Amino acid sequence: DQVEVLRRGNQREEREDDDGVQPPVQAACHGRLVQPPRQQERDHQRGDEQPDDDRLERHVIAKRRGTQHAAPHELRKHLGRIAEHADRYGILLTSRPRDDLERHGLSIWPDHDTVLYTLAGLDDRERGWGLANETWTVMEALTGLGEETWFRLGDRDLATHLYRTRRLVEGAALSTVTSEITRAWDLAVRLIPMTDDRVRTRITVAATDGTDAELAMQEWFVRERCAPPVRSVRFEGAETARPAPGVLEALRTATTIVICPSNPVISVGPILAVPGIRDVLRERRDRVVAVSPI
Q1: d(C-alpha 66, C-alpha 113), whole Å
Q2: H-helix or E-strand containing 98?
Q3: DSSP assignment of 128-173, as one string?
Q4: Which of 25, 175, 236, 241 could pair covalently with 195 via S-S, beta carbons 3.0-4.6 A apart?
């Protein structure tokens, strides 16, 4: 059920528009979006291979991971181009920042910040996360103090976490803080979290002693390097979470909804687990396309 959004391009029901013409179907195929040959021929005959700019009112990109392995460089590059025209097309990105963790007294949202840094063109493409040309003075000092530093945070990256932590402690909603950071980075694009509520991915793995152990997402992904075999995945708090302000409205009014390439279970899954989001995507499935990394 969690990977339905990635499969439905090939499984959707045959339907017809009012004029009797079947709507275009786009399927994910090796990371490329392809149309059935008959639709391509009709488009060519009508001479409308490129959509009219007036129809591109809003793009909503349900963006999960921005890491090098999850989002190919070409898609990252085009996301940046889209962001440059956000004032024209009303671009909005919904991210899943809620695999947050606390490190060194700070609230860290790694996936969310990777999206932010990528759109700003300041991401480190060699590592696939964090800011380019980072320094690591604080991490080195913490290591010297005996702190665990398996989750690396660059010096400039820490400024983002310091600001966000202070604002959250003051009582600001995550979506509000995200908007403040986006404006500070001078990005015209709207970047909103899937929810202001706490939703965390918990992964049950097989421990070395034969028992089961539950790990936080980043513990399994970063500290353990995905080595322990996975028994199950759950999204703690998702059942009572509510979509952040503006999420459902954007999904209902978007001309195009793009689900970017990422892991369908631990990346796309948390977004779909928030009540209401999956339902809207199903209602608007003719406007939803997923780019699969598989």
Answers
A1: 9
A2: none
A3: TSSBTT---HHHHHHHHTT---SS---HHHHHHHHHHHHHHHTT--
A4: 241
Residue 2 C-alpha from the chain's centroid: 15
Task: Work out the number of other CB atoms within 10 angstroms of the CB of residue 129.
Answer: 23
263 band by pLDDT with thresholds 50, 70 and 90: confident
Rounded distance between C-alpha atoms, residue 75 and residue 83, angstroms: 12
Q: In angstroms, rounded to a whole number, what is the distance separating the alpha carbons of residues 204 and 238? A: 17
Q: What is the rounded distance in angstroms from the CA atom of residue 238 to the CA atom of residue 152?
A: 27
Q: Where are the beta strands (DSSP E) in the chain?
A: 27-29, 32-34, 59-63, 92-95, 101-103, 106-108, 190-193, 200-206, 212-216, 230-236, 256-259, 288-290
Q: In one letter, which amino acid is 71?
A: A
165, 102 Cβ separation under 8 angstroms = no
Those residues with Cβ within 8 angstroms of residue 294's Cβ, 6 or more apart along the chain or in another chain: 6, 264
- Model pTM? 0.71
Nearest Cα residue to 267 out of 292, 242, 289: 292
Q: Are 215 and 258 in contact (CB under 8 A)?
A: no
Q: Which single residue is written with the structure tokens 């009508």? A: 46
Cα-to-chain-centroid distance, residue 98: 11
Q: How many CB atoms lie within 10 A of CB 253?
A: 13
Which has more pLDDT, 11 or 165?
Answer: 165
What pLDDT, on the 0 to 100 scale, is given for residue 118?
A: 83
